[in-house]
Amino acid sequence: MKKRVDEFLSASRQTKRLASLSLGRGRQLAVWHNSHDEIQYNATSGHVFSLYLNGGAGTRRVDGSVKSGEPGTLCVLPEGHSSEWQITETFQFVHLYVANDALRAAYAKTHDQDARRLNIAEQTFAAPGVLERPMLKMAQAALDGDVLAADASFSDMVAGLEDRPVRLVGGLSSRVVRDVNDWIEAHIDGEIRLYDLAKLAGISEYHFHRMFSLTCGMTPHNWVTRIRVELAKKLLKQEPMAGVAVACGFSSQSHFIRRFKEQMGVTPGQYVRMIMP
């Protein structure tokens, strides 16, 4: 079973996790301190965006770049990444861990593009460009335990991600995806069946499930859950929790709480306390 980068770091006696924050949807933040260490990553699970906060001159990649790090440099470790690192000085850095489907779905939604166009290229000690500001904000949010600020900064980061030229085979057209999204939003308070969505695309349920997952980065079921939770976030500002669960199509209060926490990293009650003045 593949391990995440944070699992490799946690196994070292030299590393110290200064802060950790779950954002839900397969997203996790961590701020680390490390010194005089050797780290090896092997076929990692999920993608990692890393920004050096303090120090880094004593950090170099043994298996690749001859450069060393410095504050403000960015490393991107795509899923399946392997590398070896040597650390001879103290430094601090922030890591964003994000599952492949979560990142691609966020990209598809934000850019209104096919999820397969997202470019997740390996980078070592690169200039962060437009990603620096949201990464710094996520680091501070992790230290503050501020899920809302971290979630907003994640959205800003995704908006800055680039696409790549790719010849797409299969998948759904942008028109079909828009029709499906419109139908979901119009029926969000009730049961949404795969049959109904496949009918909009004019293909079988099997092929719709497969083509939708390719295009949008996650399964139709998870996509619908995400839309339900996004609506719930808006309604919680003005309506009681029980009414929100019904309006968003959750089968029960417990189902609503469970799915909301999976998506947001906090319960609906915790979320309400965060947004209330």
Automatic annotation (TrEMBL):
The keyword Transcription applies. Residues 178-274 form the HTH araC/xylS-type domain. PROSITE patterns: HTH_ARAC_FAMILY_1, HTH_ARAC_FAMILY_2. It comes from the Bacteria. One of its GO terms (molecular function) is sequence-specific DNA binding. The keyword Oxidoreductase does not apply. Signal peptide: none annotated. Keywords: DNA-binding, Transcription, Transcription regulation. PANTHER family: ARAC SUBFAMILY (PTHR46796:SF6), HTH-TYPE TRANSCRIPTIONAL ACTIVATOR RHAS-RELATED (PTHR46796). This is Helix-turn-helix domain-containing protein.
